Amino acid sequence: KTDFAKTSIDLSEIMSGGPPKDGIPSIDNPVFVTLQEATDYKDTEPVIGLSINGDARAYPLQILMWHEIVNDTVGGVPIAVTFCPLCNAAIVFDRRLDGQVLEFGTTGKLRRSDLVMYDRQTESWWQQFLGQGIAGQMTGKELAIVPSRLESMANFRKRFTKAQVLVPNN
């Protein structure tokens, strides 16, 4: 359903990543435990850490390696936590754009060895590394980046005493 008549790139740059669309499933209903309950994670565990409006969360890369996108709401802000295992890009975006809240999934495609996401509302394709719409209705639009850190669990624990940690839900 993507409108490929509207693009900002040469579509010959798009390559198959192997899995089909949503073959790498996003996490749309994330499950968390408290920081104190997150005993399965070693101090050296890499996580994407962030805090919005006093709501602190850690997203372990061992989970994102298999899912690449977490659609979540933190501190009242709808966000997409994204990770591309091929280029090691860990970026968090605000999912609000043009008066709507977008939900993201994986296209199964790559551009320049980077994840190409799509939004389920318009089926537009997005370059993960830049947060830019590259094909479809949202071509040329840009998602706002939410400040986050790629850090160790130990460092996250030092920064926050009250927080939540993503756990596998499958």
Mean residue pLDDT: 97
Report the biggest beta sheet as strand number plus sense, adding barrel if it closes: 5 strands, antiparallel
Strand order across the biggest sheet?
1-10-11-12-13
User: What fraction, in percent, of the residue positions are helical?
Assistant: under 10%
Question: What is the strand and helix layout of this fold?
Answer:
Blueprint lengths: L13 E3 L14 E4 L11 E7 L2 E6 H7 L1 E6 L2 E8 L4 E6 L1 E2 L2 E2 L2 E8 L2 E6 L5 E3 L4 E4 L9 E2 L2 E4 H7 L4 E4 L3
Question: Could you provide a short overview of the structure?
Answer:
The protein is mainly β and 170 residues long. Helix content is 8%, strand content 44%.
Sum up the structure in keywords.
mainly beta, 16 strands, globular, 170 residues
Question: What does this protein look like?
Answer:
Helix content is 8%, strand content 44%. The protein has 170 residues and is mostly beta strands. The strands form 4 sheets. The chain has a 5-stranded antiparallel beta sheet with strand order 1-10-11-12-13, with no helix packed on it. A 5-stranded mixed beta sheet has the order 2-16-4-3-15. The chain has a 4-stranded antiparallel beta sheet with strand order 5-6-7-14. A hairpin with a 2-residue loop joins strand 5 (69-74) and strand 6. The mean pLDDT is 97.
